[in-house]
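dumping the sequnces here before i forget
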Amino acid sequence: MRDLGFRARGRNPKGCTGPQFLGEWTLFVFGHVGLSFLGYHLWGSSRGGESFPKGPGAYVLLAFFSLLPDIVDKPLALWVVPELDTTRWMGHTLAFSALVCAIVWRFLPDLLIFSLACPGHLLLDSMWRSPHTLLFPLLGFKWDPGTDPNISLWELLGGNLRRILSEPHLALPEIIGLAVILVIGARLSWLALARGRETYIGPRG
Ligand SMILES: [Zn+2]
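..and the predicted 3d for all of it:
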């Protein structure tokens, strides 16, 4: 099957001491977004009944910041700098997350809580297992190896599907994340419908 130019890579870069690719779980969109929503609600409910933003804008911001490291890294690593051999680099460093939070804190302080989903992404990616990348450039100018195999996107999706079937626990964060997204989506839709009914004044005449 034609791979449409989507390639994922996972060879160890020269001088890199990290582990070789072991066929790890690589797609994590629902997990990142849904678990960020969950963390946000836990933070909100820990504030002793104080209200916190729960409109669509809050969730769009959370989704954006929770995926920002991948939004930055994946396209660049796959198509712009393919010699990197990893799809986790600049966007997956602590320095990038700190910079994002600092910029938001300085210019849009009300949005700081949403920007914390960016370092949260590093936590969910278990970036402590890739210290060269996480702490770049403190441990030298090198990146840890990617966790994506050197195969096409379709092979990657097929491989992940096979892994879900053989090791269902790997998909648990994705399932929990998807469930949270569906619950919040249903709540927002219900609120929008209720608001629509309130403003509906009925047929004339
Ligand atoms: Zn990532």
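The pocket of zinc ion is lined by residues 69-70, 88, 92, 121, 125 (CB under 6 Å).
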